[in-house]
Amino acid sequence: MDKEKATGNRNSPVWTKQSNGMINTPQGFLATGIHAGFRRDSGRLDLGSIYSECPAQAAGVFTRNQFCGSHVTVTRKALEQSGGVLQGLICNSGQANTGTGKRGIEVAQNTQMLYQEKMSIRNPEWVGVFSTGVIGILPDMDRCRRGIENLQLSKNPKDGSDFSRAILTTDRVAKTSCYVMEIDGRSVTLSGNAKGSGMIHPNMATMLAFITTDAAIEEGRLRPLLGQCVDRSFHRISVDGDTSTNDSVLIMANGMAGNRPLNPEHPDWGTFCDALQALCLDMAYAIVRDAEGAHKFIEVEVFGAPNEENAAWCAKGVISSNLFKAAMYGEDMNWGRINSALGAAVTEHHLAIDFSRLDLTAGKGEDAIPLMRAGELLEHSERDAAALLSQPNIYFAIDLHCGSESAKAWGCDLSYDYIHINAIKRS
């Protein structure tokens, strides 16, 4: 394990990042992934499940796209009806169950009931259902039924790995993260699994993220905490500017670690919050690095804003610009595209920004290239700029000089490969 420093509470102990942790590593969680036939390729796993040995506190953040998947509608309702309690979830890949009308809702609800019966869960609303894949395809109910019958969930790390593979679509790699910390003298584990590589844009994307923890959390605390962490991670990434229909982030906390329920007054609240934020960032970064056709990971950091929200809007405005992304693929230090995207974001959100005070820098440390100071263009070496942009990780700093807050956003370049992937393959 590599040690990381907790930053939230000054009395927080050190937490550790566990490189081999899986979604079923926390106490009381089982998982698996199988091939159920939603995909034609028999070598592709396409049905995954997570189960808690006891009912868990749960919260979700879902897509803001109003043309949303049936599973989004059904799982939102389940969380409302259960008062934020889930005991299991099931997810198919390859068939998104979006744009499928009343039949899609029926399939999602029937899936809930079949899984409830299989796992002997008390209420159907304690089951979350998820789908990802091609819009307009109704998941085959017979395959779903047979798949649920064949589920054999376990604590085995291989089954956790199989779950991470079963939820993938155009992803090249599984995206996992795991942290372990000490709370009230008890070992607490926090694990996450995500999928997503295209249709990625702030307000989430064609992405699913599942988080499990054996921590005990005070009722009503999970939803606002998850929302805060999502706002500072998944909501700040962009691959292609398209907000998906099926985006979901779900957390389940079953309390089996035996700690006193966490709340903001608990001395270890900061530790848990920091670890959850780190976990979400790990998965958000992994999504950008695995973006369809991407060659470069780009970070834009905005300083000197009136508040964090303003800084985030500006950073997201730049990272979401397709013109900027294309310039990054071409390794062209076209600072005008940065300023144009920034100006559009400022206009859209009615921000009072004085561009005559703007500083713009590419890169960090000794390799940093100042591009603008106080709104004036600075001369720079095109050779140095091309060398900086040839790197796989690229950083830009923008200082607005109108406040003291900052925020970051993350994205990638836009390549010919992205067009190729999305032009020849329906996904």
Automatic annotation (TrEMBL):
Transmembrane portions of the chain: none
Keywords attached to this entry: Acyltransferase, Amino-acid biosynthesis, Arginine biosynthesis, Autocatalytic cleavage, Cytoplasm, Multifunctional enzyme, Transferase
EC number: 2.3.1.35, 2.3.1.1
Residues reported in the UniProt entry to bind substrate: 169, 195, 206, 292, 422, 427
InterPro entries: Arg_biosynth_ArgJ, ArgJ-like_dom_sf, ArgJ_beta_C
Main location: cytoplasm
Record's compositionally biased regions (Polar residues): 8-21
Pathway the protein takes part in: Amino-acid biosynthesis; L-arginine biosynthesis; N(2)-acetyl-L-ornithine from L-glutamate: step 1/4; Amino-acid biosynthesis; L-arginine biosynthesis; L-ornithine and N-acetyl-L-glutamate from L-glutamate and N(2)-acetyl-L-ornithine (cyclic): step 1/1
Gene3D superfamilies found in the cross-reference section: arginine biosynthesis bifunctional protein suprefamily, ArgJ beta chain, C-terminal domain, L-amino peptidase D-ALA esterase/amidase
Molecular-function annotations in GO: L-glutamate N-acetyltransferase activity, acting on acetyl-L-ornithine as donor
Site label Involved in the stabilization of negative charge on the oxyanion by the formation of the oxyanion hole, positions: 132-133
Cellular localisation: Cytoplasm
Site positions for Cleavage: 205-206
Database matches in PANTHER family: ARGININE BIOSYNTHESIS BIFUNCTIONAL PROTEIN ARGJ, ARGININE BIOSYNTHESIS BIFUNCTIONAL PROTEIN ARGJ, MITOCHONDRIAL
Function: Catalyzes two activities which are involved in the cyclic version of arginine biosynthesis: the synthesis of N-acetylglutamate from glutamate and acetyl-CoA as the acetyl donor, and of ornithine by transacetylation between N(2)-acetylornithine and glutamate.
Family of this protein: Belongs to the ArgJ family.
Record text on subunit structure and interactions: Heterotetramer of two alpha and two beta chains.
Name the UniProt record assigns to this protein: Arginine biosynthesis bifunctional protein ArgJ
Natural source organism: Candidatus Haliotispira prima
Name of the coding gene: argJ
